[in-house]
Structures are given as C-alpha cells and as structure tokens.
Amino acid sequence: MSDLLAAPFNYVFDSIVKVRVSAANFYGYGDISPLSEDSGARIRVIPIKMAPPTMDPLSTDVTLIMNWVALSGADAGNSPVITYSLLWDAGNAEATTFTELTDALVTSFTVNAVQGGRTYRFKVRARNIYGYGPASDPTPVVPQDAPGKTAIPTVQLNSTVPTEVQVSWDQPNDHSATITAYEILFMKANGDFVLESTRCDGTLPEVVTTRTCSVPMSTIRTLTALPRDGLIRVKVRAFNSRGAGLFSEVNTAGATIETEPTNLSVVSIDVPSTYNNQTKVVWTALTRSARGGKDVLITQYEVYWDQSTGDWVSLANTSSLFTLKEGLTGGVTYKFKVRAYNKYGEGDFTAPVTIQTS
Are 51 and 69 a contacting pair, CB within 8 Å? Predict the structure, then answer.
C-alpha cells in the first residue's frame, strides 16, 4: 500500500486501485485487459485523528469513565480498527508526554483512584494494520460528583428573634464541586413536604453561605397547618454542578409550634376584698400548652373594665394573678374581663364578670 502511494503510482487515499493484465507465452504477450472495475480495492492508510474523548456522566470524584466514538470506513483508513489507545497525563499539568492507559478494541475505559478536584488530560488514538493514527486533542476533566447526603438539620427557636424558627445544617461532602444551592422542605400536618420560599429559599447566596434560615413562627403555622406543640420537621439536600445530593433524614427533635395564649377559663371577684369603694379581680394562671405552647411563658395579663358605660377600656397590665381596684363608687355595676400575653401577642378575653359595689 505504501508503494502505491509513492511515485511512480502516486495514488491518493480512498482512490480505487486500477489494474490491467496481459498474459505472456513463448510467442509473446497477449492483448491487455480492460481496466479493473470501480468496485475494486481502495487505497488504505492509518486512521484519522480522532475526536477528543468525553467523560461519562456516571463518573465520580474518585472514578473517571472516559468514552470515545469508534471509527469506521474512510475515517478508519478503510481498514478495520484493531485497537484504540487511551492516553493520559496522570494529573501532571506540566506533562508533555502522555502515558498509555489501555490499548484494546474498546470505546470506554474506567480510571480508578483519581483525586477529586484535580485536572486530568486524556487523548485517544486508533490503530489499524497500517499503524496508529494521530492522537486526539486533549480533553481536560476534573473528577467530581453530586453532593453527599446532608446530615439531619437543627430546628430551634432563633436566639435573637424568639418568635422565629431557625433551621441550620452542616455542609455535606461537596465531592469536589462547589455547592451552589440547597432545598429546605417543611413537613405539613398531612405528611407532605413544602418549600418556604420567602426566608428559606436555598438558592439565596446568604442561605448557601451560612446554611441557616429563619422563618416567623406565624408563617410556619400557616405553611404546615401543624397543631400547637407539633414538632416542626425539616429535611435538606444540596446541589452542585453535578446535580442533587440525597435529602437528609427528618429531624426528630427541636422547636415545636407555638401560638398566642388561649383565653383564660374564668375571671372572678374576690368577695371578701370587695367593699363600697374597691374590688379585687382574680384569675387562674395559664399553664403548659394553654400559654401558647408547652415552653412558652406568659409575659403579662391585661384587665379591661366597663364602668356601667358600655365602653370597655384597659384597666391594668400585671404579671400577678389579681388586680385590686380602689376609688370605686358604691352601688355602681362594674364589669371586668382579662386576657393573657406571650411573646406572640395577646389571647382572647375571658367572659366578663360583674360586681355591684356595696
């Protein structure tokens, strides 16, 4: 084949070899044959320069799978490919000579024990019976993978803003690809999960950086429809350029739903302390869940009164369980009602209690 490519024949690649034949005996040569048909043998050469290899999507931060496209026909030099040779620089950015990893009739090769985040360069070339074709241009690849599974998040009341719930989590293994976003989902009362897109949007740079978000308790109550003292349950996962990591497990401890106080069950008049010009209004403290949650504190009680005018106005704010009102007028009917406050605001009023001073 090399002789046909050289002078005096000067065939070019892929051209059909043309031949005429004559026979000779004792009397000389016979007539020469017609030219051979156009369906005859073609000039063959080494394979062409291959396209660069590509990294398989199933590659990870410790294993690289390199793929390439097989050659055939004219691209293969019109001769079947015997082997493909995958070459690499072994992660040496200064290398000018590439080392052979495999020489086989395959179109994929797995390289194990690579270092995540390090750049590796690969080339590929094909060989037929006439020799190796030129190596492809190098393909630089970096071993990476989707993030690891996120650990269980911490769900607690915000120490700075105690009416908000703070969700925080540790950064999972990024597998050598920078984490670009998180998804933070809250469990609803029916078991479904929902995104809180105002304060816990995991695409926000500050959320990605701090791995923390804080949501008003009132927002969570509406979002989840959980009952008072219901555990606020959250799961989180991370994203990078390779995709999404696994969701964390849902927390089994942490902040619970809190509300304003319930209304006091009863308010009464302390008769022995009631005279012509004074009266004492008493009530029973709210306890546990009635305070707005098992861990919520009552900050104050507010007493309203009606001085037989039909208008209710605030009389006193106190942390005690009574209020003594002096300076009353004998024979006048007074009405009183009480409500409790916690950090979320006020509860409902009690039913009013009536007294006529005498």
Answer: yes
